[in-house]
Write a structure and sequence with these properties.
This protein is an all-alpha fold. The protein has helices spanning about 10-25, 25-35, 45-50, 55-75, 80-110.
């Protein structure tokens, strides 16, 4: 149906953002991620290339993806939205924790009698 045309400037901004994000990853994580995404290598192939165990490669890939997402969000400005959503969830937990703490003295008195 309708075809959306991308603005070339948006692609340049996106590419720069990805490059900035990648440079902030530790080399050990970045190497695994690049071999996987750009090189198209499997975990087994990356392990052979880097002389690592497959479990180590899978763990590094998992860490690299998570860290990439966190840094990307921070660099792109989406971090503020995620942080505000987090603080709302945290506030709900805190109020539940306060309620539980408020009941503890009463439980202690009941147990003592």
């Amino acid at each position: 149906m309708g075809h959306v045309v991308e603005d070339p400037a948006d692609r340049v901004v996106e590419r720069d953002l990805v490059q900035r994000t990648m440079t902030q990853l530790p080399e050990t994580l970045r190497a695994c991620l690049l071999l996987s995404i750009i090189g198209g290598l499997s975990s087994h192939e990356i392990a052979r290339t880097l002389n690592l165990g497959e479990a180590a490669v899978r763990q590094r890939l998992s860490r690299a993806r998570k860290l990439f997402q966190q840094v990307y969000r921070r660099e792109s400005g989406d971090f503020i939205t995620a942080a505000s959503a987090f603080s709302t969830r945290t506030q709900g937990r805190r109020s539940r924790q306060r309620k539980r703490v408020a009941h503890r003295p009463q439980l202690a008195m009941v147990a003592a009698s």
